[in-house]
Design a protein that fits this description.
The chain is mainly alpha-helical and 158 residues long. It folds into two domains: 2-94, Orthogonal Bundle (Arc Repressor Mutant, subunit A), CATH 1.10.10.10; 106-157, no CATH class. It has helices at residues 2-11, 18-25, 29-36, 48-68, 84-91, 96-105, 112-120, 132-141, 153-157; strands at residues 72-74, 80-82. A hairpin with a 5-residue loop joins strand 1 (72-74) and strand 2. Helix 2 crosses helix 4. The relative contact order is 0.11.
Length: 158
């Protein structure tokens, strides 16, 4: 989730370098919680060096995720630049994982059944649940469900 927040800030040009991403984290509620309960985040010390290493690790991991998802480019000097996909993700509140999946699976000639399957696998549907009555209806009346596993995102969204 941190990656998606950083993406939005990079798109808005609030964050333009890795250092600004580190500074940004120090102004968040997460940072306040980190200082109050470091053991929850597996941080052994509140001294500057361990805290900076931890924040640096989080920023680097998030930026790597964003680069792998085609949302951000990171220059050798630490400058950050949003891509078109990063701007789309930010504008439509999409996860960087969803944008990556769309980029890698969608094409101009995709058929409607496959398109529905791809969209139903979006990260945004991950937490959705079905009511028991809907589960019974789908199970008994819909023969085209890809799977009858009601914890599966594809089943819930199809």
């Amino acid at each position: 989730m941190l990656s998606d927040h950083l993406n939005a800030e990079i798109v808005a040009a609030t964050i333009t370098t890795k250092q600004e991403a580190m500074d940004y984290l120090t102004w968040t509620y997460f940072f306040r919680r980190l200082l109050v309960n470091p053991s929850y985040y597996e941080l052994e010390s509140l001294e500057n060096t361990p805290v900076n290493k931890y924040l640096s690790f989080l920023v680097q991991r998030s930026l790597t995720e964003l680069e792998d998802s085609y949302c951000v480019t990171v220059a050798d000097d630490g400058q950050l630049q949003s891509s078109e996909l990063g701007r789309i993700a930010s504008y439509y509140y999409l996860s960087h994982k969803t944008v990556k999946m769309f980029k890698e699976t969608l094409s101009n000639d995709v058929e409607i059944e496959l398109l529905l399957d791809i969209v139903s696998q979006s990260q945004e549907f991950e937490g959705k649940t079905l009511l028991a009555i809907k589960k019974a209806y789908f199970f008994n009346h819909l023969s085209y469900c890809f799977e009858k596993n009601f914890l599966c995102v594809t089943t819930k969204t199809n």
